[in-house]
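Troubleshooting entry. Yesterday's outputs looked truncated, so today I'm pasting the complete records for two proteins to confirm everything comes through intact. If either block looks cut off, that's the bug. Protein one:
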Amino acid sequence: MEQEKIYNNTNVNLKQTKLKLVLFVILIAGIVLFSKGIRYYIPNQEITSAKEYVGGDAYNYIMAASIKGGEISGTETSKTIYICSGVLLISYSLIKLIENSD
């Protein structure tokens, strides 16, 4: 009877240790994603030279501005996804660690 109690207690401790380890890994992943999002490079908004896509200069600048706008919006979207994912993972892991600290 006493051995069974010790075995169950050890089994519970092992499960809690594994859970805490997984939560720490999630926390680290969240911190990495958040820091990557903060340091994500957004390209310069200036159009230095417009390639010749079509015959007229105005059309070339319009096309270059459209391409640059796509690059900027894509990088801002990526940055937002990294930051939000990082915050969600950090929040989840901290909440679960606090709940399981008993």
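Protein two, checking that the full record survives here as well:
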Amino acid sequence: MIRAALVLITVLLVGACTQADQWTLAFRAAPSDAPWQFSEVAGHYHSLEQCQAKGDGLVRLGGDKGQYLCAQQCEAQQGELSCALLAPSTSSPIAQESQ
């Protein structure tokens, strides 16, 4: 019974990162160049705009010190988040330069 529950939880966790056409939001309280971790996933959104709005809100709540990532087609690989499509945060220097 416990083994079946563990298998179900594992499938749900991995499946949560691989939902098609959804944006995965990862958030960390302090900026870092370290690889994104599966444990930093903060939610899934239907549009990039929703993901970025939530990420911006989390950064503001953290005193403008946090960092977030919106991405699609994400998988957890040995605890690290691997995504096929990355979008810059709206508060990143890259996004601000292109506006």
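Both blocks look complete. Sanity check on protein two: Helices lie at 2-16, 48-61, 93-97.
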